[in-house]
Write a structure and sequence with these properties.
The chain is α+β, with helices and mostly antiparallel strands. It has one domain: Glutaredoxin (3-Layer(aba) Sandwich). Helix content is 34%, strand content 19%. It has 3 helices and 4 strands; from the N terminus they run E-H-E-H-E-E-H. A 4-stranded mixed beta sheet has the order 2-1-3-4, with helices on one face. Helix 1 links the parallel strand 1 and strand 2. The longest helix is centred in the N-terminal third of the chain and has 12 residues. The radius of gyration is 13 Å and the shape is globular.
Length: 91
């Protein structure tokens, strides 16, 4: 089973699409909504994401088996998960 974690914003449409991608496939994920955690947790999330995102912090940030994917990229999720399916342009 792959290890998947999603840092998201609770109100972000792209974050919702990313969460749905994994839910639709029955893939267990750990979801952390950045806007719903404490300021200390937010700071830790920023410190974790920034080195993998070119200096900016963007959501969603999906981590699949240690590989960071910034933004909503179903084709990349499929590749990293080793799924045998076609991705649509926007999931």
């Amino acid at each position: 089973m792959p290890e998947v974690k999603i840092y998201a914003l609770s109100y972000c449409p792209w974050c919702k699409k990313t969460k749905k991608f994994f839910a639709d496939r029955g893939i267990a994920v750990q979801i952390v909504d950045y806007d719903l955690v404490t300021p200390a947790e937010q700071l830790a999330i920023i410190k974790e994401i920034r080195p993998h995102s070119g200096g900016d912090v963007s959501f969603p940030c999906t981590i699949i088996n240690g590989t960071y994917v910034i933004g909503h990229h179903p084709e990349r999720y499929i590749e990293l998960l080793g799924l045998n399916e076609q991705a649509s342009a926007h999931g």
